[in-house]
Design brief:
6 helices; nine-stranded mixed sheet; Rossmann fold; alpha/beta
């Protein structure tokens, strides 16, 4: 079964993110970049479906600067067969629509039964790329999926909804965005890392459409106020003082 995985490289969740003094972006020097964690679920699910079918290819498609090659190679080391990088400049900004258009242009016309992606990227949390790519390609889309069963030209997906889960049957090809709980992504083995160096990776210079949405300024969140300890030996009085502070000062009750 042939499938594709849309992959984004994002700052490591443990990285210390600093905003540039002029508010035009984040300081990228010294920051470690990794595969978007939700996209890892997509890579793993594509590999599992290929293994279950006994044939097929998994193609990784990413859009980003030169450093994105490292994350594509990581996915290849996990077991994917080939990669495509739609290369843009390090500081080139694209909104979700421009990004989705470039990805859809690359993906269309290929024999992919499923296009997997993460439910959202952890850097901007927009959760728009999967549905936009599906719409531009004229394909059905199922989001926040935690289980996928493929049978012939159909897939039955379990997806998270508020207060429960929803079972959706969808005709293939389709776009499926992956949620935590779908699987447990494998680690790249040493033989896999060695093989990944020889797997095909096509790098294409890409010109994006002008963004229709722009970011005016980046700002750090406001600093949290220092905590306050209510002193005293009388537990009842301390409790009363705490309730009063929560109601009148913090205004949370």
């Amino acid at each position: 079964m042939n499938s594709a995985v849309i992959l984004k490289q994002v700052p490591d969740t443990e990285a210390l993110i600093k905003v540039k003094p002029d508010g035009t972006g984040i300081v990228k020097e010294g920051v470690k970049f990794v595969i978007n964690p939700y996209d890892e679920f997509g890579v793993e699910e594509a590999l599992k479906k290929k293994e279950a079918a006994g044939s097929g290819e998994v193609t990784i498609v990413s859009i980003g600067p030169d450093r994105s090659v490292e994350s594509i190679r990581t996915a290849l080391a996990m077991g994917a067969d080939k990669g495509v990088l739609l290369k843009i400049g390090e500081d080139e900004y694209s909104d979700a629509l421009a990004t989705a258009k470039a990805l859809a242009e690359e993906l269309k016309g290929k024999d992919y039964k499923i296009i997997f992606c993460g439910k959202q990227a952890i850097d901007d949390d927009m959760a728009q790329i999967g549905p936009m790519v599906a719409e531009l390609m004229g394909l059905p889309c199922v989001t926040v999926v935690t289980k996928v069963d493929v049978s012939g030209d159909k897939a039955v997906c379990s997806r998270e909804i508020e207060g429960g889960k929803e079972i959706v049957e969808v005709a293939l090809p389709a776009v499926i965005s992956c949620q935590k709980g779908l699987n447990e992504p494998r680690y790249a083995s040493l033989p896999g890392i060695m093989k990944a160096k020889k797997k095909p990776l096509d790098i294409k210079d890409t010109k994006l459409d002008a963004p229709k949405a722009t970011i005016d300024k980046w700002e750090n969140p406001p600093q949290r106020a220092a905590g306050r300890i209510i002193e005293g030996d009388d537990a009842a009085a301390k409790a009363a003082a705490l309730v009063k502070a929560l109601r009148q000062e913090a205004k949370v009750i």
